[in-house]
C-alpha cells in the first residue's frame, strides 16, 4: 500500500460631531446586572453568526453575565444576482476590518459581497485574502492553520498553499501543477491600520496596489487624531448609507446621546457634484443651527461616506466623520467608523490620547443602537412599497430639501449601481435578507462587535478578572467584620480576657470544616480568623466598643467594594447586549425642538 494513502485515527481535543466626544466619555451603564444566570460562551464560526464578521482564530471562552439571544435564521446561500449592472462592485477596494482585530497566527474569515474570505498572514508578514474554499473538496480554508513555513494548510486533507495560491503539498499524492489545485487569491493590502480587500484576482505580474485607489483619509496621515471602531449591523449596506447621509434625523434619533432635539433646524442641503463615482453636497448653515459652520458631505462609491466640519475659527477644532459601509450579505453590513479630529488646544488632544479606546467603542455601540430597530424594520415596508423598482421619491414622502442627499444616493444606486450589490431591493432581496429580527437580537453586541474586537476583548477580560477579585475581597472583608463583631460581643458579655480566644477561633474552626465548592469561602474564613487575632492584639482587649466600631468600618468598606463589583457587572453586560428603550425615550429633559 502507498504510505501516502495510509489512514491514521487520532483524537484531538453623520452625527452632531462636537457632542460625539461627550457621548464617548459618558456612555450609559444601565446594562443588565449579574442577576441573570451566568453562562460560558464560545466564539463561533462566522458562517453560523447572525452577522458575518471576522473570527479571531481559535475559539476562546468568556464568562457571560447574560443569556445569549436566540439565533436568527441563517442567511440563504443562494443570493439574488443583479442584472444589467453598470457598476462593477467587485472592482473596488473595501476595508474589511482593523488589522489589530485579525489573528496573525491563524486563518480568519470574513464575508464580503456574499463571498466568504479566508484572511491570513503569510511567512513574509504579508496579509492575504483567499476565497474561503479549498479547491480539493470545497471545505473552508479558514478552518485550517498556518504552517511553520508560513503557508496555509487546509484542515481537511492537509493541502498546502503559498501566498500566490499555488498548491505546494498534497499529502495523499497528486499533480500539484494542475491549475485546478490552486486556491483563488484576491487582492489585499494594509493602509491606515485597515485591511483592504479588492475581490478580484490580480493580473499576472501585477505589483502592489496604487495607494490612490484606496478611499483613505489623508488627514490621518497628516497627524489628525483618529478615534475608530466598527460594528456589524443587521440591516443592508444601502440602508446604512441612506441613514448616514440623512442629516435631519440626528437631533431626534440621537437625542441625549450625541445631539439634542433643540438643535433641529430647517435644512437646505445642496448636491453640487454627482456622477458614477458618487455625489458631494453641502449644508451651508451647518449643524447645531449654524454654530459649527458649513458641513460638507461626500459619498464616494461604493463604500465611503465622509462628513467634514471646519470650525477652527469659531470652536477651535475640525472634524471628519467617516464611515465605510461594507456590504457583507443581503440585509447585513459592517460599519467601520472613523472620527478624526484636529484641535487647536493641546487639552483635547491629550484627553483623546489617554482615554481608553474601549470607551469609544461602547459609546459608538450606544449611538448605532439608537436607530438599529427602526432601520431594520423599515426595510420590509420599503420593499413592499416598491423601493427596488420605483424612484425613492415615489416610495418616501420627502417634501423638503433636508432629504436631498437621500435622493442623491438612491438615484446613484438605481442609475449606476444596479439597485445595490445584490440587485434591486425587491421581494427576492427581502427573502435573501431573511426574517425580521426581535429587539433582543437587534441589540446583540457580543457577536456583532466584542467577539471580533481586540480592544473590547482585552477590556472584557480585565473587567471579569477585576470582578472575581472584588467578589472574593468582599467576602473576606465581611468575614473579618463578622469575626471582629463576634470578638467584641464575647468580650462585652464575658468580661475582659474571658472567652476571647474561643471567639477568635470560632470562624477559623468553621472554615476548617468546609470543603468542596465551599473551599474558597472556608479558606477566607480561616484567613479572617488569623486577621482578627492579629487585629485583636493591636486593639485594647478591654475595649469591646472599639472592636465593634472597627467591625462596622470593615463592613462599610466591604459594602463599598460590593457596589464597585456590581458596577463592573453592569459594565460587563454592556459588552454583550444593548439596552432598550434608547436614551431619547428615557432621558428626562425639557429640551424640545418645538414648544
Automatic annotation (TrEMBL):
Gene3D superfamilies: Naphthalene 1,2-dioxygenase Alpha Subunit, Chain A, domain 1, Rieske [2Fe-2S] iron-sulphur domain. Residues 93-197 form the Rieske domain. InterPro entries: Cholesterol_7-desaturase, PaO, Rieske_2Fe-2S, Rieske_2Fe-2S_sf. It is found in: Membrane; Plastid, Chloroplast. PROSITE patterns: RIESKE (PS51296). One of its GO terms (cellular component) is chloroplast. This is Rieske domain-containing protein. It comes from Apatococcus lobatus.
Amino acid at each position: 500500500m502507498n504510505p501516502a494513502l495510509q489512514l491514521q485515527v487520532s483524537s484531538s481535543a453623520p452625527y452632531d460631531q462636537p457632542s460625539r466626544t461627550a457621548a464617548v466619555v459618558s456612555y450609559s451603564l444601565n446594562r443588565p446586572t449579574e442577576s441573570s444566570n451566568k453562562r460560558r460562551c464560545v466564539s463561533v464560526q462566522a458562517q453560523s453568526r447572525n452577522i458575518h464578521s471576522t473570527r479571531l482564530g481559535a475559539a476562546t471562552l468568556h464568562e457571560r453575565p447574560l443569556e445569549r439571544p436566540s439565533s436568527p435564521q441563517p442567511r440563504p446561500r443562494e443570493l439574488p444576482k443583479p442584472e444589467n449592472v453598470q457598476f462593477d462592485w467587485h472592482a473596488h477596494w473595501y476595508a474589511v476590518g482593523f488589522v489589530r482585530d485579525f489573528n496573525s497566527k491563524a486563518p480568519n474569515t470574513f464575508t464580503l459581497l456574499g463571498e466568504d474570505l479566508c484572511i491570513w498572514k503569510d511567512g513574509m508578514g504579508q496579509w492575504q485574502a483567499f476565497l474561503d474554499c479549498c479547491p480539493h473538496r470545497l471545505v473552508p480554508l479558514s478552518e485550517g492553520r498556518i504552517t511553520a513555513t508560513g503557508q496555509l494548510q487546509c484542515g481537511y486533507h492537509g493541502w498546502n498553499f503559498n501566498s500566490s495560491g499555488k498548491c505546494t503539498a498534497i499529502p495523499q499524492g497528486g499533480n500539484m501543477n494542475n491549475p485546478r489545485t490552486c486556491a483563488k487569491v484576491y487582492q489585499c493590502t494594509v493602509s491606515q491600520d485597515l485591511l483592504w480587500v479588492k475581490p478580484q484576482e490580480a493580473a499576472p505580474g501585477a505589483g502592489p496596489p496604487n495607494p490612490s485607489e484606496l478611499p483613505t483619509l489623508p488627514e490621518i496621515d497628516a497627524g489628525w487624531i483618529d478615534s475608530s471602531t466598527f460594528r456589524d449591523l443587521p440591516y443592508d449596506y444601502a440602508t446604512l448609507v441612506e441613514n448616514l447621509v440623512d442629516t435631519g434625523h440626528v437631533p431626534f434619533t440621537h437625542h441625549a446621546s450625541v445631539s439634542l432635539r433643540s438643535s433641529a433646524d430647517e435644512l437646505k442641503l445642496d448636491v453640487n457634484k454627482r456622477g458614477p463615482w458618487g455625489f458631494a453636497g453641502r449644508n451651508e448653515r451647518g449643524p447645531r443651527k449654524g454654530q459649527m459652520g458649513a458641513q460638507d458631505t461626500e459619498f464616494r462609491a461604493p463604500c465611503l461616506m465622509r462628513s467634514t466640519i471646519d470650525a477652527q475659527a469659531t470652536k477651535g477644532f475640525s472634524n471628519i466623520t467617516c464611515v465605510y459601509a461594507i456590504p457583507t450579505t443581503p440585509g447585513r453590513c459592517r460599519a467601520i467608523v472613523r472620527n478624526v479630529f484636529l484641535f487647536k488646544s493641546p487639552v483635547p488632544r491629550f484627553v483623546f490620547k489617554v482615554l481608553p479606546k474601549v470607551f469609544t467603542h461602547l459609546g459608538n455601540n450606544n449611538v448605532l443602537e439608537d436607530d438599529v430597530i427602526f432601520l431594520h424594520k423599515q426595510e420590509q415596508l420599503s420593499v413592499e412599497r416598491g423601493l427596488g423598482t420605483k424612484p425613492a421619491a415615489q416610495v418616501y414622502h420627502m417634501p423638503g430639501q433636508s432629504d436631498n442627499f437621500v435622493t442623491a444616493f438612491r438615484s446613484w444606486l438605481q442609475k449606476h449601481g444596479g439597485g445595490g450589490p445584490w440587485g434591486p431591493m425587491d421581494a427576492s432581496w427581502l427573502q435573501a435578507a431573511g426574517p425580521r429580527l426581535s429587539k433582543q437580537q437587534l441589540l446583540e453586541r457580543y457577536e456583532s462587535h466584542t467577539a471580533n474586537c481586540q480592544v473590547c476583548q482585552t477590556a472584557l477580560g480585565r473587567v471579569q478578572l477585576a470582578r472575581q477579585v472584588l467578589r472574593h475581597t468582599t467576602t473576606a472583608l465581611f468575614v473579618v467584620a463578622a469575626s471582629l463583631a463576634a470578638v467584641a460581643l464575647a468580650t462585652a458579655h464575658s468580661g475582659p480576657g474571658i472567652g476571647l480566644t474561643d471567639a477568635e477561633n470560632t470562624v477559623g474552626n468553621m472554615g476548617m470544616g468546609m470543603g468542596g465548592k465551599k473551599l474558597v469561602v472556608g479558606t477566607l474564613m480561616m484567613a479572617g480568623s488569623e486577621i482578627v487575632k492579629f487585629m485583636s492584639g493591636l486593639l485594647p482587649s478591654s475595649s469591646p466598643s472599639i472592636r465593634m466600631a472597627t467591625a462596622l468600618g470593615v463592613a462599610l468598606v466591604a459594602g463599598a467594594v460590593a457596589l464597585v463589583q456590581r458596577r463592573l457587572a453592569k459594565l460587563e453586560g454592556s459588552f454583550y447586549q444593548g439596552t432598550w428603550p434608547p436614551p431619547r425615550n428615557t432621558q428626562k429633559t425639557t429640551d424640545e425642538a418645538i414648544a
